[in-house]
Write a structure and sequence with these properties.
single chain; 192 residues; alpha+beta; Aminopeptidase; 29% helix; binds coenzyme A
Length: 192
């Protein structure tokens, strides 16, 4: 048991393969891959994400961060998937299941992003179908929550395709690119 009372000692690091993708946690020695993804997509992603410090775009930051991600997976706090192409030479995107809460809630929050050059090919849908299944069947969670900016129609369509249902609207919910922004709240429940 860890500080959150949710340690699963027998859970192996996931490696989920789809037709075009491999979804898995990166090891610290693969920091260069994540660093390249972040640098190449800085402009593409900044309007959808929190403000990033300069360090976020360095290899040393990602070496440390990937170590934290492995620890958090082992402790059952989060599962941060990198989505790679089938030869595992470049990062297509990321999908992060964070704030895992057990007890009567059994839920987590999902965030995701795809590289500009891979957008619009159904790749995020392909990845999330597989990773959502993992979260429900292997992590045993009951609810995955995701929030999107009202004008992010692409993200809204994606969630709806995946079976996420709108549950509400939260004013000034997340600080995106330095501004507290309203969000549409959605969630997907196991077996729905
Ligand atoms: C949102 C995002 C992950 C979608 O990834 P993707 O791989 O392009 O998604 P998919 O191709 O699987 O599906 C996108 C869907 O949006 C639709 N779409 C594309 N452009 C659209 C637009 N301008 N308006 C509405 N729908 C749009 C696509 O047609 C597709 O739906 P369909 O299959 O029913 O046609 C990607 O655009 C991204 O990373 N955006 C920047 C970061 C971000 O927004 N993250 C999410 C924060 S909530």
């Amino acid at each position: 048991m860890n500080r959150h009372g949710l340690f699963k000692s027998n859970l192996k690091l996931p490696r989920l393969c789809t037709e075009r993708l491999v979804c898995r946690l990166l090891e610290p020695h693969e920091a260069t891959l994540m660093c390249s993804f972040r640098k190449e997509n800085k402009t593409h992603l900044e309007k959808w994400e929190p403000l990033r410090k300069t360090a976020f775009f360095t290899e040393s930051f990602w070496q440390a961060q990937l170590r934290v991600q492995l620890r958090d997976f082992r402790e059952g706090v989060s599962t941060n998937f990198s989505i790679l192409d089938r030869d595992e030479l470049s990062i297509v995107g990321v999908c992060n299941y964070t704030n895992i809460v057990r007890g009567t809630f059994q839920s987590c929050q999902l965030g995701y992003a795809i590289a500009k050059r891979y957008e619009g090919q159904g790749l995020m849908e392909e990845a999330l179908r597989q990773t959502n299944d993992f979260v429900f069947s292997e992590l045993g969670l009951h609810r995955i929550m995701a929030a999107y900016l009202p004008h992010n129609h692409r993200s809204g369509s994606l969630l709806s395709k995946l079976g996420f249902k709108k549950e509400g609207f939260a004013e000034k919910y997340l600080k995106i690119n330095g501004v507290w922004e309203d969000h549409v709240l959605t969630s997907k429940i196991k077996d729905r």
